[in-house]
Amino acid sequence: MSKVTKKVWLILIIVALALPMFVGCKPEPEVPDYKAEFLKELKNEVKDSGVATLTYTGDNLTVAFTNSNLAAIRSAAKGLVTTFKGKVDNTSELVLGDDTFKLNNALDLDAVKTKILSLTSGNHNGTFAYKVNVKNYQGQNFTLSGEVTISGL
User: Fold this and answer.
1) How many angstroms separate the CA atoms of 97 and 130, rounded?
2) pTM attached to this predicted model
3) Strands, E, within the chain: which ranges?
4) Of the N and C termini of the chain, which has fewer Cβ atoms inside 10 Å?
5) What 3-state class would DSSP assign to 106?
6) What is the average pLDDT score of the chain?
7) pLDDT tens across 14-47, in order?
8) Closest CA to 146 of 125, 129, 127, 126
9) What residue spans define the domains of the chain?
10) Could you give the CA distance from residue 99 to residue 35 in angstroms, rounded to a whole number?
């Protein structure tokens, strides 16, 4: 056999041995993007509240209120908190400025509202930084960190 033929045989043997290893491999299961799922669920819950809409780009959130009735907004906020308290661990945290609020039964919505007003210079509309440390959402921990823009009030 010539050198070329030996090389061709060697390549064929290598391919014959290596090919089944790649063909027989099962693809890795797709890992869900839990942060994206959380944001999508939050968006739907806000929409279902009937008082606002939520859009997002990355971790930056925009809340556009469609109802300026503060009693209706407060009721919807309580409903959102109740819904998500059942989906995340009670050690999850909302960080606004230098204040941290635990997302548990002791969460004081008035304190959150007061903090938001202080971050928006007393105006109901505005933009401020936020961070949420989500614990145990579908068994996963992650952080959302960005800006919230509020309009429509």
Assistant:
1) 7
2) 0.76
3) 52-57, 60-65, 93-96, 99-102, 126-137, 140-151
4) N
5) coil
6) 86
7) 766 666 666 556 666 776 899 999 999 999 999 9
8) 129
9) 34-151
10) 23
